[in-house]
Design brief:
The protein has about 300 residues and is an alpha+beta fold. About 30% of the residues lie in helices and about 25% in strands. It is built from six helices and 13 strands. The strands form three sheets. The chain has a five-stranded antiparallel sheet with strand order 4-3-2-7-6, with no helix packed on it. Strands 1, 11, 12 and 13 form a four-stranded antiparallel sheet that branches. The protein binds FE2/S2 (inorganic) cluster (FES).
Length: about 300
């Protein structure tokens, strides 16, 4: 038996839209960390369910708007002239409405608190141009075409000189496609990790310092490792000794006329030279590991390690 009379409106049942909205926000936040696709799906879910939720909550307020015709307008005017309608009490603001509005506000606030810092970290590098982990080697003028420059930098400035790393940078001019080309070799020997040295004199009078970066022009057409006699040519290919692959290389980018070091990668072999070289690239691996050929199948899988 119902306690409601025939004219008493039923309370609306619980809505599922808030749950969909919450799932959308969760997907959005998760996607910001792991995948743009998931973030986009989450954003769509949050928008769709948010709109449905808002429509549901405001349904009674919006109500039904009758069509206005000349007859209804005249009847309304006449009724208004004859009778002054009694002032109707404002609809009560029910507890369920208050709770729904509070939940919406709370969800929006939590979403903002969780999302804004993530967005800040993602968007800020676009304005500063340089990621924290990137190394800015300065203007391209620092690198004369066809010559190697020894670039040393602090991979972790907060750790000081112990984190200083060395790269051999050669400006190759432009590729056939008109793109700037640089050969950037990592100095760590790919036999057991000793520091490789350029086989040629360093121009000590032309040393440049930019923040934590030092640049030393060097006349070198090959590189040698003092530990076990490993030798590499100007492209980083092994020419003698025990190293098992070519010298590792850095990817690079050019931003605002400056050379920016990118990720390290391993190299199997380089054919050709400079801008016209064909480089067999592989994910970076520790020294002593073959990255191509039959030997690469005989080595155990090496867990990923920090390269800096
Ligand atoms: S570590 Fe370089 S040759 Fe052995």
């Amino acid at each position: 038996m119902s306690i409601n009379g025939p004219d008493t409106p039923h309370s609306p049942g619980p809505s599922l839209w808030p749950i969909g909205f919450a799932i959308g926000i969760a997907c959005l936040l998760l996607g910001l960390v792991i995948s743009w696709v998931i973030a986009a799906i989450g954003a769509v879910l949050a928008i769709v369910f948010g709109i449905l939720w808002a429509l549901d909550v405001t349904r009674d307020v919006r109500g039904h708007v009758p069509a206005i015709t000349p007859e209804t307008r005249a009847a309304a005017a006449q009724a208004e002239a004859e009778v002054e309608a009694p002032e109707e009490p404002l609809p009560a603001y029910t507890r369920s409405r208050f709770l729904e509005a509070s939940l919406i506000g709370l969800s929006a606030g939590m979403g903002a608190v969780l999302t804004l810092p993530v967005l800040g970290f993602m968007v800020l590098p676009s304005f500063t141009n340089i990621d924290e982990d990137e190394v800015d080697l300065g203007p391209l003028d620092n690198f004369p075409e066809g010559e190697y420059v020894i670039a040393t930098y602090l991979s972790k400035p907060e750790q000081g000189e112990v984190s200083r790393r060395t790269a051999f940078v050669r400006n190759n001019g432009s590729s056939e496609a008109g793109e700037p080309s640089f050969t950037i070799l990592y100095s760590r020997c790919v036999h057991l990790g000793c520091p490789v040295q350029p086989n040629g004199p360093i121009d000590e009078d032309a040393i440049k310092k930019i923040k934590n970066v030092e640049l030393r022009p060097v006349l070198a057409q090959s590189f040698g490792c003092p530990c076990h006699g490993g030798q590499y040519n100007a492209e980083g290919n092994r020419t003698a000794g025990p190293p098992v692959r070519s010298l590792d290389r850095y990817s690079f980018s050019i931003r605002n006329g400056k050379l920016i070091l990118g990720e390290l990668y391993a190299v199997g072999n380089v054919s050709g030279t400079g801008a016209n070289a064909t480089i067999a690239k592989y994910p970076w691996s520790v020294p002593g590991t073959h990255v191509d050929g039959l030997e690469s199948w005989l080595y155990p899988i090496v867990p990923s390690q920090v390269t800096g």
